[in-house]
Amino acid sequence: MFHTKNNIRYVAIDFETTGLDLIKDEPIQIGIVVSNERFEIIESFQSLIKPKKKIKELKSVVSHITWLQLADLQESPSIEDLLPIIQKLIGPESVLIGHNIWFDLWFLKKYWPEVEVLWTIDTYVRGSMLLHYQSSYSLEVLWESVSQEYGASLVFVDEKWEAVDNWNSTYHDALYDSFVSLWLFRFLYEKIQGLCVEYPGLETVLSRAEDLDPFFETDPRVLRVEMPQFGKPVSLSKKLDSNYDPLTLSWLKTTSTRYMWNIPLREFLERTCQDQPIIYAVHTRQKLDIIKHHLHDLWQYSLWFAKGEQIWDHWILTQIANQERLASFEWQFIVKYLSHDKQWLRIIDLRNDDYKLYQLCKVSSKSEQQPIMLMTHGWLYHLLDNPDYDEYTICFLDADWRHYTYNKYSSQRVDLNYFSLLLDQWYYVFRRRSMLEGFDVQENKKIAALLYSFKQSFTVFLGTLGIEVTKKFTGVDARYLELDPIIWNDDYFNTNKLRGKILSLSDSCRSSWGEESWGIQTQRENIVKTLNSVMRVDKKMQDNKYLHYTFSQAHSYTEFSEFLEVLSGHQVLFCSNHKSNNTRLAQGNTTTKSFTHCRDQNQLVNLLKEQPHKRIFILSSAKHISQSLFDKLTQLDSFSSFTILAENISWWTGKNIYRLKDSAESIVIWWYYFLLAIFAKKEPLDIIIVHHAAGPLKDLILSDCLYYMPSDWWNWVKNSEQ
After folding, report:
1. Quick check: pTM over 0.90?
2. Residue 140: which of 658, 649, 651, 545 has the closest Cα?
């Protein structure tokens, strides 16, 4: 049976820090919980840590997130004081457990390099392997999901646990988070044990894993593994008994386009969803979720989200499972595959290295089309040339965004990190298929060496370009910049030195890529074209760990007549909820509703004080303005009971939706997309205030918010501006 060896010492650890910058920030609290292999608590420890920075230099968000009083840190033990205690609790025989353990391990090794551990286990990685389609994989969201869905609970079994239970326990307390990480690991460990019982071959797979945790014991008595096949999808749909006259779109039989303005969303969907097949295309993915909820309320379940059914090559997957040794991502994927199968989930929640096996094992097949299809504008442009969709009527919602979405699509934004992942995938697929299908070994060794050289050289090129682009953003508080082409540009001297080698290697590899690697060739051409043009460069986050950049050609304006050529041959209904003066749009129902506006910060604070026990959303498009307002609110006693969420603290939507859901009193300082995400999750708000929404898209954004807002929320939307 899959189980731990005796005399294992589990040590769960968590740090609270002054921020997420691994170089500049410092630990200010540590929590450690030690247990044996039966998860019985042996001892626990918690302490504040005196930072080297002066207290006044620390960020205001520290107290708000961690609930620590910065003044208390001044009298706390130093890093040197804590070394003997930490060495007593953590040693070479310890298995270190944490959520995003790389972060805690970084600070442990940086400030206490003398400490050694046997192994590390990341509950974030294990959670994404065994808990599927979560709104977020943060510690609090995963644990709440486990507690609610599976009936697990955090049980305190001795005096130490009871002492913790008596606190006002909260996440972002180092000791409490350590307890939760340990208990989450125990739950996930028992979940793998359950899968081993359900699928006896899994234990054999684990016994062949290259880097399975060395303190686990497996019984490889089952020699041959047979991977199960996923079941087929079930289509559900129901015709409506509607009071509305359906918009049969019969006028489109005489003309290819039609224009409509400001018909309420729910009414529009009810009057069109029965005229199938039909495509609803919107500007952003948050709106897809809003439309999906409306259609489900209208008994329309046969939907397609521009993501084809995953069909796996059963023979290849079984061959992988029966290798003598399995790499880390291979055995983890097989566990994930079986976990999905047990829960009757047909589509696997793919992440990171999962795509290597997906590319190896997927079966090329035509996606099962549904009568109602939901997609963003970008996906629509991508599929327009596919004859499979010629019979679909296209409802092009958010027509006023067509310049933004089409220019974004036509500029062919490239993510060099994504291209690097494609190279990793193709290198893996090429080597594995060579082994499984018995290709010419000698020839394949040459090709594999060439692919590996290209992959390694591109990684160096990517890092060099990132360093030189970062200089452009230094001292600039901007999410994107427009930059000159890199070719023959002295600002990119080191990048250009590597550029020729990269192009030469990619040309050499092209003949070996084959038909299936069309995506790599297309990406390569886009990269060359984009880096040789005037570029828009956007800052992004990768895996919540570090910055990287995406590159695109600078946007150009597209005339409406030219845009219609893109959609020629299709029956299209253009829908707008904004431009009432657009003569192309037939008039629908009008609205005079608007949001509360308040630009003055002091006036806004006074307005908030008049709203006790409320959930308030403050729409703000500028980061520095959001930061200023956040600082002011967190320093006032009047708002001490409120949960305050702000874009300058964290931009992870799922985690913050969870925090909003869990709070009766809250103030959210965020931007447009997060408000749409709240609408999609049907989280109620009491008031929305527009604090800062400048720029040419201001009116369009605000009309969008009003249009996609749940229709029963109008009781708190005010018509007057302040």
Report:
1. no
2. 658
